[in-house]
Design goal:
- This protein is mostly helical.
- The protein has a domain at about 20-130.
- Helices cover about 70% and strands about 0% of the residues.
- It is built from eleven helices and no strands.
- The protein has helices at about 5-15, 20-35, 45-55, 55-65, 70-90, 110-120, 120-145, 145-155, 160-175, 180-205, 220-230.
- α10 runs antiparallel to α11.
- The longest helix has 28 residues, at about 180-205.
- It is globular.
- The mean pLDDT is about 90.
Length: about 240
């Protein structure tokens, strides 16, 4: 099955980015938002899911920015109706615990419901279903495709989160080759972390009057790249008005 995802994985590693895995996930997020706000929002199976699990705070903002205000309004309307119906039933039973063994603190059924709803998201679920296959494809290509191995070695590394993910998943997908992969992964990650760190240091130095006439070198976007490297977040530089 991994062969189905070789094109988007290769495309991500072809990008000039501090984390190709972030690029993959961003592309999936864009596709998931467009799917959710396209004609699919009127399909019964989609509406049953969005009614049941709703959206996280991050993705409801992206859905709003999509400009299909009517589609989002209709989904939120029936999601609110489902939530109201469920909570009316649960709250009528009083503050009874949700159940479960070995809990340090009993949680009411209402709180368990609201906690679950706050941590669920139709868009996140759609992303995660495919993202897992992308990760499997990285390891598939690493074992089967010499050109991909070269791309991997020449990449600018990964963000902290995805470095940890690849390090851990190597044991699942590579078996006896996991140690060799991790050795290479460590080199790529740590060398590129130092590169960005050094650019960020020079960025801070440029605010010192002693360096005001020195060139910026590669540091002008160092803060943006550092945020991606450490926090897996893409930010855009605010343009002067």
């Amino acid at each position: 099955m991994e062969e189905l995802y070789t094109i988007p994985v290769n495309d991500a590693f072809d990008l000039d980015t501090e984390c190709p895995v972030c690029a993959m996930r961003k592309a999936l997020e864009t596709d998931a938002v467009e799917f959710t706000m396209g004609p699919s929002y009127m399909e019964d199976d989609v509406r049953m899911e969005t009614d049941r699990i709703g959206f996280c705070s991050n993705h409801v903002k992206l859905l709003y920015q999509n400009q299909n205000r009517l589609g989002l309004a209709l989904m939120l309307l029936t999601h609110m109706d489902r939530t109201r119906k469920d909570l009316t039933k649960l709250s009528a039973a009083g503050a009874k615990p949700a159940g479960g063994l070995f809990k340090k603190k009993e949680v009411s059924a209402v709180k368990a419901y609201t906690d679950k709803l706050e941590s669920s998201c139709f868009v996140c679920d759609r992303i995660n279903r495919i993202f897992g296959r992308y990760i499997a494809t990285i390891f598939h290509l690493y074992q089967k495709d010499k050109d991909f191995v070269q791309k991997f070695r020449n990449s600018k590394g990964f963000c902290l989160s995805h470095y940890g993910l690849l390090y851990e998943e190597a044991g699942v997908y590579l078996g006896g080759r996991a140690d060799d992969f991790r050795t290479e992964l460590n080199r790529i990650y740590l060398e590129n972390l130092k590169r960005v760190r050094d650019d960020l240091e020079w960025f801070t130095d440029k605010f010192d009057y002693r360096y005001v006439n020195e060139p910026w070198k590669n540091s002008k976007d160092a803060l943006i790249r550092s945020i991606l490297k450490m926090n897996s977040v893409e930010v855009e530089e605010k343009k002067a008005e």
